[in-house]
Amino acid sequence: MSVNITINNVTKKYDKLTIIKDLSLEIKDGEFFTLLGPSGCGKTTLLRMIAGFNTIEGGDISFDAEIINDIPAHKRNIGMVFQNYAIFPHLTVKQNIEYGLKLRKLSKSEIHTKVQEIMKVTKIEEYKDRLPEKLSGGQQQRVALARAIVIHPNVLLMDEPLSNLDAKLRIEMRSAIRDIQKDVGITTVYVTHDQEEALAISDRIAVMKDGVIQQVGKPEEIYSHPVNTFVATFIGYSNLLKAKVIVEDNVSWVKLSDNYKVLINGLNDYKDEDIIASIRPEEFEVSDKGIKAQVKTRTFLGRYVNYELRLSDAFTVNGEEIIEVSQDIGNARKLYNDGDILYLEPCTKRINLFNKDGSISLKGGAVYNEE
């Protein structure tokens, strides 16, 4: 049976240093929920608070309606999958999976049935008699996952479980984890710093920075409608350009360069304000008008070509002249070479706009232009 997790104004301190302060979050029953953020942002600390490995200095954590603050970790009925697998090297695959069931004093027949079922779900039946040293990294991770799930925990907690795998295996295993989680329907909290991984497997994502949740939403919401420039640049890559709101005849425009502006409705309240425009590399189109730029480098990436472009009359927030633009080869009329001059038009429906310091979304282009 899975549960709903409610985190209400929790605080975590180490001596006088506050890592997490007054953090609140709701994780739904059966949801695959990811805590995403850079190293040191507090995501693993929060996971360990849910697990019972870290104390809680303020607030409450509940499974359904039951506050679990004072319940020891071994009585919370959770399953854990760690970065280093943590499976027993002297036990076979089958013995590793049986371990938690034996601690719960299940009968031999129950243990046999449950182990056979979970090995089938995780696709490791053929390795049941092997020792961990005879398994690949991905196979070991499947064993760790099977051992965590076979006890039928209320919550599955996963801390950077794929970080020790190579790139190809990470992609394979994230699909496997997603499929297994949906198959068993267990509430899962997953910690990672890998944005692509989070986007690929999550029902919802909480983006964290310095112990504070910046945004919670579905992957497509987080990517398309970031609430601030931190989220915009942490989730994928985004070009941040200095811009200005201009209002003429009660119509609002966003000026992106000395000689180019785009019509974006709903910004009259920000007349004459300096703002930030966030535009992802794939959201530009080469045109006969727009932001003037020169090709600095071209990188072939298979389906896409990625360009580094030097701006002529627009400016990035960090003061550099360089932006990135991606071109889909399947739709490209031509490819461009180093030194070529281009004019770029952004897709106004997908531009995200923020106040001058990047802390607040103006909800301009990305929201009001969807209709």
Walk me through the structure.
It is a single chain. The chain is α+β, with helices and mostly antiparallel strands and 371 residues long. It folds into 2 domains: 5-224, Rossmann fold, CATH 3.40.50.300; 240-368, OB fold (Dihydrolipoamide Acetyltransferase, E2P). The protein has 9 helices and 20 strands. A 6-stranded mixed sheet has the order 6-7-8-3-9-10, with helices on both faces. Helix 2 (93-103) packs across helix 3 (108-121), helix 2 runs parallel beside helix 4 and helix 3 (108-121) packs across helix 4. The radius of gyration is 25 Å and the shape is elongated. Mean pLDDT is 93; it is low at 364-371.
Q: Can you give the mean pLDDT?
A: 93
Biggest sheet overview: 6 strands, mixed
User: Strands across the major sheet, in which order?
Assistant: 6-7-8-3-9-10
CATH superfamily of the largest domain: P-loop containing nucleotide triphosphate hydrolases
Percentage of residues in DSSP E strands: 25-35%
Summed up, the domain count is 2
Class per helix and strand makeup:
alpha+beta
> With helices defined by DSSP (H or I, 4 residues minimum), what is the helix count?
9
* Uncertain runs: 364-371
The CATH level-2 architecture of the largest domain is identified as: 3-Layer(aba) Sandwich
Radius of gyration from the alpha-carbon trace, in angstroms: 25 Å
